[in-house]
Amino acid sequence: MTELQTPSLDNGLWQYDIVNDKYCFSPGICKIFNLNLQDLNSHADFLKLIHPDDIERYSTLFDANIKAARPFISSFRIVLKDETVKEIEENVDFTFDGDGIVTSYFGIVSDVSPFIKLQLERNDEYFLIHTLLKALPNLIFVKNIDTNYSFSFVNDNFATFYGFTPSEIIGKQDKDISTPEQAKSCYISDKLATKHKITSPLVTIEEIPITKRSVKFMQTIKFAHVINGTNYLICSAMDITDLVKARQKAEKSDRMKAAFLNSISHEIRTPMNSIMGFSELLCEAVDTGDMELFRDEIEGHCEQLLKLIENTVFLAGLETAEKEILSENIDIESMLSEIKEHFEGMATKKELDLVYTPHSGSCNIFSNRTGITKLMDCLIDNAIKFTEHGSVAVGYDLKDKCIRLWVKDTGIGIDKVNARKVFKRFFKIDEFSSGLGIGLFICQKIAKLMRGDIGLKSTKGKGTYVWVDLPLDTDKQ
Is 265 found in the same domain as 174? Predict the structure, then answer.
């Protein structure tokens, strides 16, 4: 910052000798008024040059103070012959004899035009800087190092960030406007910043608590600077919360991609190795019973691999674009019967009862066929996979303009902690179980796309009840 120099001023002296009724003017007066010495013979000659708008005010002040023999200072403008206007400051005082009687009075006249001009320029610069600081999105603040880092200046954005007005912060310290932990952190960074200059400022990222559950991240630039002998800390902070959250989101996405690739590589290798192994055994088998066993194993692993690919492709479609939900008239009774029939073989292999009890009469609903089919496929597949004994029941209920599709099993169940995590992507209670851990995540995505909701109730060791509520127009017959 460049320090502005105060300009030198032209000064002149005039005196009125009361005893001899005589005015005297110094050469400095002539220079200020741009006149020759012979042109100034009386106070009247002096008054002729005062600006018309200032003459009455000046004369009133002059006459009153001269009459009272009271020293005074006055400010006024003069107009020169070339119409140049100057700003004048006059300091009038008196001399007295031994009896205290005024013998003369005199005035020191100064041309303060350069000073007034400089002041106006500084005011313009201050206004420009002040406007700029208010317009900047940054949080600008200045601390006085010599008064233990008290605030000397803050812009509106800084004050608003902390919930104050600028006047409420000036003169205070960090401990007065923030938490003790943050104030301590600011004090440490302020101490470090005193060793930094404008050419190499200290750059820090600070985590600032706003409420008990939310924080903001601020990138702050600080450097020390001396102004008129006072040590200041000049600071500018920028809210980078969105950038930090975006980075965290990207890092989370990278971790999820790594987990996905790790999981899918395992899930693909396992059935592929089985298919290759049983294919070799099938080629070498002679016994018909062995052939059927190997063929069933190959078929089962092929279905597992196909399901894995279908779910991965379906999830990619959900992630890359919002699918358009097209509704159509659906006979829900017939549809659930077909879905149940599709899983009969899978349930029979595990000696489970797959139960679907139709409602009396037919039921037509207006909804998305693909979405409902995928929902029920995922829910029934999960139920059978995690049920070793007992049954899996499938059904629906109608209420108002909503259909609740549900699947209930007598499987291993889920504890309360994991029940809150099952709808997360790639979550698996048992890392050794087959699948990517995206089935229920897909169900949740579909439910949201169809403006519905999904939930579950489960007791560990007793079974699970999963439901999906979807809005619709019904026409039950």
Answer: no
